[in-house]
Amino acid sequence: MAPVAETEYLGARRHLVQLLQEQGIRDLAVLHAIDEVPRHRFVPTGVRHRAYEDSSLPIGSGQTISQPSIHARYLELLHLTGEERVLEIGTGSGYQTALLARMVAQVFSVERIGALLDRARDVLCEIGVRNVSFLLGDGTLGWRQYGPYDAILVSAAAPTVPPAYVEQLAEGGRLLIPLGEREEQVLNVITRRGDALEQVEAGPVRFVPLLGKESWES
Ligand code: SAH
Question: Per the structure, how many domains does the chain have?
């Protein structure tokens, strides 16, 4: 099936892309992906009219879809070339999964809440995204089977780095993870250089908690 042309909300989406450019997002692949992916399809119908505002929105099961500017910053920090195999922890709505799928070769996405994963999988299928594999389970353990990954994006916050992420990160690969307290964290960018890890802080963020064996208890 050919991907459905997404003309609905086109003006609102262009406006959002412009806003992100004004905020300093320069990576054209990121801006293109945001221009093409229909964010309104990933949020509940009751908040659809707000889909192209730069705000986080509830997606059910007590979780939220992040602000578009956070996704843009996250993706820009990865400096993607299009060839990568990427592990995403916390599928949530599947919106970031769809952005990633447009920007890389293959996405592996793990979510612990079945209802969210099912919905995300359906929407991605409806809009014609094919290069994503899903796993229902505890993402604090990563997804060993398909590693190592060129990038690992963690969409939920942890107190410390779960060891599996370092193990499953390829040479030169980047791990993005919010680290800190349950309410407030700092986005960390960790790059593997041989056996050493280079760690840079990229500013304060606020994410929902990563819950599982190697993070906070559920
Ligand atoms: N990028 C997503 C963010 C969703 S919020 C979006 O924009 O929609 C973070 C998600 O991480 C939630 O869906 C939550 O259920 C999930 N999560 C939390 N702990 C997890 C774990 N251990 N394994 C997998 N997913 C987890």
Answer: 1
**Does residue 210 lie in a domain region?**
no
Does the predicted TM-score (pTM) go above 0.90? yes
List pLDDT tens digits, range 8-23: 899 999 999 999 999 9
Domain annotation covers residue 13: yes
Q: Which of 66, 93, 109, 215 does the annotation list as catalytic?
A: 66
The residue whose CA has the least distance to atom 3 of ligand 1 is 92
The domain that holds 114 is classified in CATH as 3.40.50.150
In a domain, 216, yes or no: no
Average pLDDT over residues 194-203: 96
Note whether 25 and 76 are within 8 A (CB): yes
66 is annotated as an active-site residue: yes
